[in-house]
Amino acid sequence: MRLPEAWFVTRTMRALEVLAFQPRSAPQVAEALQVHPRTARRLLNRLLEEGYLTRTEDARRLYSPTMRIVALAGQVVERSELSRAAAPIVARLHERTGRAAHLMVPSYRSALCLVHSANGAAIRPQLRELVPCHCTAAGKALLGEREPWRESVLGAPLERHTERTITDPDALRAELEAAALRGYATELGEYQPGVSAVAAPVFSPAGEAVAALGATSAGDELPDDLAEQVVALARELTAALESGGG
Predict the structure, then answer these.
(1) Residue 15: which of 76, 65, 85, 67 has the closest Cα?
(2) Same structural domain for residues 15 and 97?
(3) Residues 246, 166: Cα–Cα separation, whole Å
């Protein structure tokens, strides 16, 4: 029986995901994809020929993604409806609060910044920093609304970054549930000492939490009105997405 073309596309994307985390050999990729090693090797060699992968020439013959993948992601970010709609709202959050503002999306066990505004500089959507989701306001705002992802993250060890990082899964789950109820999450020196933040989820027209809008503040406390302003602008961005980007 001939397999559908979509099956091969999905397998290719999964192979790239596997390799994004660390270099692997063809047998290791085959094991992760649950396919025969010859099948994995053919797939990897085709991606190698197309410039999406590199391969070491030692006995291990490990495959790794190239910057072509990063370049592709950069084009997606700059042209996405979410990024375009978010840019003016992130800038407005920075202007109103005087705080660094950002839009972040879920990225496996992390949150990835797509739009950032600070120091009055002009902004454009682009790939920026990757931060752990369990100890940052944006990551927690997203975890609180995305149950399957949340349980996947909580099912693995949680890294401690400061003495305030919550590493107990049950304690973090309770905090995430509380954040979802109040509509925003906070970060009080849990990722970096002396840095606090607040973030609120942004929803797609389908009701999925696709991003988090946030602002950071120096010190171990947050200004009283910062959460209110973040939540209001997150709702504005959600409305813009519902109307097709506004």
Answers:
(1) 65
(2) no
(3) 38
Residue 24 structure tokens: 């692997």
Q: Which two tokens stand for residue 199?
A: 């973030």
pTM, entire model:
0.87
| Structure tokens belonging to residue 23 | 């270099």
The total domain count for the chain is 2
45-98 residue pLDDT tens: 999 999 999 999 998 999 999 999 999 988 999 889 999 999 999 999 999 999
Residues 171 and 89 in one domain: yes
Q: Which residues contact 79 (CB under 8 A, 6 or more apart)?
A: none
Residue span of the structural domain in which 199 resides: 76-242
pLDDT tens track for 177-202? 999 999 999 999 999 999 999 999 99
Q: 245 — phi, psi (to 5°)?
A: 100, -5
Structure tokens at 122: 């002009």
Q: Are residues 112 and 34 in the same domain?
A: no
> For residue 70, is it within any domain?
no
